[in-house]
Amino acid sequence: MRIGELAELAGTSTRTLRYYESRGLLPARRDGQGHRTYDEGDLRMLRQIRMLRDFGFELEETRPFVDCLRAGHPAGDSCPSSLAVYRRKLAELDGLIGQLADVREQVARQLSAAEAAAREAAGEPAAPRCEMTG
Amino acid sequence: MRIGELAELAGTSTRTLRYYESRGLLPARRDGQGHRTYDEGDLRMLRQIRMLRDFGFELEETRPFVDCLRAGHPAGDSCPSSLAVYRRKLAELDGLIGQLADVREQVARQLSAAEAAAREAAGEPAAPRCEMTG
DNA sequence: GTACGGCTTGACGTGGACGTCAGGGCAAGA
DNA sequence: TCTTGCCCTGACGTCCACGTCAAGCCGTAC
Predict the structure, then answer these.
(1) Where is the signal peptide (chains A, B) (predicted)?
(2) Using CB atoms within 10 A as the burial measure, which of B65, B78, B120, B129 is most buried?
(3) CB–CB of B17/B6 below 8 Å?
(4) Contacts for B22-28: CB closer than 8 Å, 24+ residues apart
């Protein structure tokens, strides 16, 4: 199949496929007219890439999965290097989620304090605070 | 004070201050030599900006806080528009954290499945799965 | 005199994953 | 023959918050 068909099957754009090729991630054969030609294996690799990108993986992080498929393995994550990427990503996600949760709490505290100050400035009695710490 | 001193006091760079001025966020007076001049109020505004940026706020989102300080309020979050930004940010953080948690679970499942497949391919008996769903 | 430090403006570089446009080729259908 | 549709390459644009470099001015210390 040609580039337009593959792009449509994978729900992406031809520009994206040319970009992946320029990165050496998804090279294409060429037909007599110099047009890119793909097969079912390419579709599988592309779908693997898109799934991981939807998870927030960077393009380079998908390379082990693609290489794994190209090596003939049944799935992109059948290889140790792919599992290593999974584990790194899990750790990264855990760190990020924890960090965001911290920020969330800080922002929530700022908001509460500012709301309390606003109420007090409006003449309301200082509201009792649960678990006052000082 | 001049730009270098302010930058150091706030732990940032002169380039950053010029950038903020170009965005209309932190305009500066000029002295006889055309050098930028700042005062304590500017330092407070700058610190407000940096705190919010550390929280992950975009630069534009800090504008209501700066405007609030400039209007003479005791704190950058003493104004309704600042509180609105806080609330929007909390909702955004909640959404993002939830999304990341979903992704984390999906990646974790992919990893477990791939590990199980690898063990099985290695000749181990299929491990019993807790809470099998199908 | 001159070296130095701080300041000025202007403008290009960074990163990631593409979007978009320009200019051109090739084949099939009306 | 002309249009339509798909493809090609090359190259600039996008977003955001700056980093970095260039060229030059000004005051001060040596």
Answers:
(1) none
(2) B65
(3) yes
(4) B23/B59, B25/B49, B25/B59, B25/B62, B25/B63, B25/B66, B26/B66, B28/B3
Q: How far apart are CA B84 and CA A124, in angstroms?
A: 21
Say how many residues make up chain A: 134
- List, in order, residues 6 or more apart from A126 with CB less than 8 Å away: A116, A120
A34 touches strand D (CB under 7 A): yes
* pLDDT tens by residue, B79-117: 999 999 999 999 999 999 999 999 999 999 999 999 998
Residue ranges of E strands in chain A = 29-30, 36-37
Nearest CB partner across the interface for B114, out of A83, A93, A117:
A83
Cβ of B90 and A75 within 8 Å?
Answer: no
State whether CATH 1.10.1660.10 applies to domain A3-120.
yes
Which distant-in-sequence residues (6+ apart) come within 8 Å of B49 by Cβ? Answer: B20, B25, B26, B59, B62, B65, B66
Instruction: Report residue A12 as tokens.
Output: 């992406």
Judging contacts by C-beta atoms under 8 Å, the chain B residues touching residue A101 are 97
Positions in chain A short of pLDDT 50: 132-134
Please give the CATH number for the structural domain made up of B3-118.
1.10.1660.10
